[in-house]
Specification:
Number of strands: 0
Oligomer: single chain
Helix content: over 70%
Number of helices: 3
Radius of gyration: 17 Å
Distance between the termini: 55 Å
Order of helices and strands: HHH
Largest sheet: none
């Protein structure tokens, strides 16, 4: 299997995540777009690790670290979104101006 189709898939996922990050106003959908981008990075890590075939499996190890960081990011991000939703009764990113002067 060649590397090109896997890289094209990862590029499409990453592009979809960037579009979702820039176009969406709901904070939960923004977090979902960030997860899409991180999954595209994981696909790249695994694909390059499969191409190199080293004995340390560094691509898989880095992918596990990215998955762990993504899980922590979702947990903290959803907690922040829920607290802001309780105070403001909205989850729109445009209205998160709590730290503005």
């Amino acid at each position: 299997m060649t590397l090109v189709p896997v890289l094209v898939l990862a590029a499409l996922l990453f592009s979809l995540g960037v579009y979702g990050l820039l176009a969406r106003r709901n904070a939960v959908l923004v977090l979902l777009a960030i997860e899409l981008m991180l999954n595209a990075v994981n696909i790249n890590l695994i694909a390059f690790e499969a191409m190199i075939r080293d004995s340390l499996a560094t691509g898989q190890v880095f992918a596990i670290f990215v998955i762990t960081v993504a899980a922590a990011e979702v947990g903290i991000g959803l907690a922040i979104v829920l607290l802001i939703f309780r105070n403001r009764a909205t989850a729109n990113v445009d209205e998160f101006n709590l730290m503005k002067w």
